[in-house]
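hey so u asked for the seq, here:
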Amino acid sequence: MAHGKAIVTCALTGVLTDPAQHGVPVTPEEMAREARRAYDAGASAVHVHFRRQEPGQGRFPSWEPAVAGAICDAIRAEVPDLVLNLSTGVVGPDISGPVACLERVRPEMAALNAGSLNYLKATSAGTWAWPPMPFDNSVDKIKRFLDAMRALNIVPECECFDTGILRSVGLFQQVGLLTGAIHVSLVMGVASGMPAKASWLPLLLEELPAGAHWQTIAIGRQEIWSLHRRTAELGGHLRTGLEDTFYLPDGSKATGNGPLVEALVRVAREAGREPTTPAETRAMLHEAAAA
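ran it, structure tokens below
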């Protein structure tokens, strides 16, 4: 089978999307229900963000360990097999909230934002969509996250928003910050980062550390599906979900995470690849990929 099996991950909810507008899951019950739908559709892993649980506050993130615990306990109760991958993305040097959530949940994998980015977006009227925001991830901050993950036996997933960040992953490995199997996510589609263009993939893959596992995180509308197809063809792992897109390949709006995962599994199979089982995904977390 071409390139072996593909890990399919579902990013269930994201950071700031308004649940009143897009219907993203917020409560433990909603998150568990969407995790079940993603699993039934073929996902073996879920990427999890946490939202505030007070009425009317569900569009805002939470780093309360009790919230993280309630959500992940509900997911584990509903779908015990799923691999949990937690968000750790936080602005500023204080990582105590994300680390407390990691300590409470003890997931098998967690995101490691591997470099800094000016997080920007402009409107059609020529104004900023939000105040320009520096998403700061200094080497010191990255090291502190890695130390916490290592102490908890959590595999880091290096999220790379631009080419310099991708190249930094190899430097982290070279100086001993990153050890063991390397997992890289190419985040494509943020307006001030790498574009969601399939034509970029061959050059980006040249910059991967030897033997790294990789996936694309494709952010956008239906144009992202050509990127998913090329990822599958080139041997990458696959991710979708309401954090990344609301739109199916035909341009219609997804009613939840399940239909997005179903569409992504079809993309994998059209490229001659089957989705991994959760057990197969766990085995890959600690193993180097074929160079």
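The chain has a mean pLDDT of 96. Residues 10 and 46 are 5 Å apart (CA to CA).
lmk if thats what u needed
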